[in-house]
Amino acid sequence: MLKYVFTCLFLVVRLVSIAQDTNNPNTKIEILRTDELIYNQERGRYQICRGNVRFKQDAIVMDCDSAYFFEDKNRIEAFGKIYIRQRDTLDLWGGYLEYDGDTRLAKVSKDVKLTDGKMVLTTQLLNYNMVDKVGYYTTGGTTTNGQDTLYSERGTYYSRSKDLFFKDSVKLTNPEYTMTSDTLKYNTLTKLATFLGPTFIRSEENVIYCQYGWYNTQTNISQFSRGAFIEGRDNKLIADSMMYYRNTGLGEAFGNITLLDTLEEITITGDYGRYERLNKITLITGNPLAKKNIDGDSFYLKADTFIDLADTSFGHKRLLNAFSGVQVYKSDLQAVADSLVYNFTDSMISFFTNPIIWTDSNQITGDTIHIFRNQDGIERLEAYNNGFVIEKDVNGFFNQIKGKHLEAFFAAGKIYRVDVDGNGQSVYYAREDSTKYSGVNEVVCGKMVINIDTAKSIRSIVFKNKPKAVFYPLELFPAEKSTLQGFRWDFVLRPTRFSFLN
Predict the structure, then answer these.
(1) Is the per-residue pLDDT at 477 higher than 90?
(2) Could you report the per-residue pLDDT of 195-204, keeping only the tens digit for each?
(3) Digit-coded pLDDT (tens) for 328-376
(4) Contact 76/70 with Cβ under 8 angstroms?
(5) SS3 assignment for 134-149
(6) Could you tell me if 238 and 257 are in contact, meaning their C-beta atoms sit under 8 angstroms apart?
(7) Structural domains of the chain ordered from first start
(8) H or E stretch at 269
(9) Has this prediction a pTM greater than 0.85?
(10) Which of 120, 296, 331, 462 has the fewest CB atoms within 10 Å, measured from its CB?
(11) Residue whose C-alpha is closest to residue 404's, from 426, 388, 415, 391
(12) How far from chain centre, in Å, is Cα 233?
């Protein structure tokens, strides 16, 4: 009985001493309250605290249901409803605690929850340094911040900077997208996620991949680099780096751009790209090159600038516009022009401002030229204002057809008929065989229809509206009449496949 009284007196004196010493800036853990306090030296050199237990060390306050207090080691082992708070820095809950007062290291387990007032981190085991204000877990943890929920196998939280580093099986879930990564840094104040390893961002619209970049989950502005690409349902954009503004739907791509469109079977490359999602407009500059599969053949296109758009005002047409220095190459068609519009929907290609078209041995010019295609290739061609067809035969003579409006019809890539409407003119060298000519036809009329056979010989000509035709023997044909006004043979400008591959 006397031993028990002395034990109680010792504990009372110790509690009073601690209470009187709360302003002393030492590193000793203090007992602020407990419903029951037991000290039995025979059980071990620790005190047993039970019921509404509260400890304090400087600015750190710790609550629990019960605890072992190793006073000589300045250490606590606590059980049940652990609650730790460090002024305005953090609140930490758990079911079990091991705390070292000398190192200020806390090991909290069992349904752990940590919050800084905005962010909430949950895990099953957390190690937290009260001095450095750094916590880490290695058994899987989930962080919630606003609409963002982030899981990772390993993670580190820096309370001072509000930074979290996540590693292994990282997954960030937002109502609009899901992000998976190998390594991720996230700041709870700026809501900036920085990708430090292979990362995928998946939404209903597309999939984004990169190996480095950042995403501001508050402003929805992001940057991607190192193997970056954006892949939609029917297209994929690859570039050295990208910027994406989700709220406005604006995307920018920089360096070694490749745009793959599986629906239209077209690939576009360049150095800079800009995409407006709401208007469905894509701009590509910096030596852009387009390559499209047409009926098993490759269609190549060069220009200074491409604009790819879906024109919703005309029945959802898909258009590719090319500006300045247009060059086209296909096995059955080559062209140059100032600008071009390729209508993917109805397979019409329009050339504007001084266009020149080459098909087989023919050169066709006009102020504006439209080419209409079908599944077999070129179906017909229309040249408006100053339409001019020139065909150079095997002996170097130039057959010519000219008119205000000119329409040429094709079969197997060769012209078989030409309709001329308005100011029709023609010079044609009629051949008997490969070396002999029967003469030269010079024709002027309002309209004409010229039918051409498979050997490129004129089979028939129908003249309308006051025709004037003169047939000359070859040796008597005046040299000054050998070319119609506006004649220009621009074969040197004709693109080749080699020029598109180098």
Answers:
(1) yes
(2) 999 999 998 8
(3) 999 889 999 999 999 988 889 999 999 999 988 889 999 999 999 887 7
(4) yes
(5) EEEECCCEEEEECCEE
(6) yes
(7) 1-123 (2.60.450.10), 358-502 (2.60.450)
(8) strand 266-276
(9) no
(10) 296
(11) 388
(12) 12
